Amino acid sequence: MNTPPGKALSQLAPIVDEYQQQANVPQLLAALAALAADTPTDELFAAADAYAGIPEVLGPLMEAIVAREPGHTRALVRLANAYWLTGRGPDVVGELASRALAIDPSHRGAWHLWALTETEPRARMQRWLQVTERFPEDELAKANLADNAASVGTTEDDPVALRLALDTFIDLRRTATHPQQVQALDQAITTLRTRR
Can you spell out the DSSP letters for 97-161? Predict the structure, then answer.
């Protein structure tokens, strides 16, 4: 019997509350499995969305959605993120991100996870560069590109990577408004200029 519309969230709340009080993982997983079995995909996704910050809740619910709908891009990305946050590792997360990208090449979250899971520093820098080229207004991707390029440039004494990092930090500085962000960017720019 399916969960009536709007009920999944109200049923999920006490499951999460009990888990947060008892920290009983097997009990949590059993309750989530029962809820998922009786809840339509859209309703389950919406309920899980309310607990997106708790990967041990989000992950099993997204697993249930992906099991029934392997092409559900948003669930693949959410599952990959939950796995990343719980330490499942770059291979598993990268595979989920790649699956999501194959289904929907415009999903920015999938691109972020794809770039994040590259373990080799230079290749990770190149992936972030691809993300910034695909999404030119994505400041988080730019920040990741700048950080990775600075790391590659410093550890490998690579002037091209250092220039990429500097240019990207300068670009981010142009639009920065928060005082702490401005200060951090100014410091990064100054540091990189002294290395050139």
Answer: HHHHHHH-TT-HHHHHHHHHT--SHHHHHHHHHHHHHHSTT-HHHHHHHHHHHHHHHHHTT-HHH
C-beta separation of 151 from 121 below 8 A? yes
Give the model's pLDDT for residue 196.
61
pLDDT of residue 90: 95
What does the pLDDT look like over 66-78, one tens digit per residue?
A: 999 999 999 999 9
Which amino acid does the sequence have at 174? R
Q: How many helices (H) and strands (E) does the chain have?
A: 11, 0
Is there a contact between 72 and 99 (Cβ–Cβ < 8 Å)?
Answer: no
Closest CA to 174 of 147, 149, 139: 139
- Evaluate if residue 3 carries a pLDDT over 50: no
Q: Which amino acid is at 121?
A: P
Mean pLDDT of 17-27: 93
Rounded CA-CA distance 6/192 in Å is 53
What b-and-e string marks burial along 116-131, b requiring 16 or more CB atoms within 10 Å of the CB? bbbeeebebbbbbbeb
Count of C-beta atoms within a 10 Å radius of residue 29: 16
Q: In terms of Cα–Cα distance, which of 35, 29, 31 is closest to 7?
A: 35
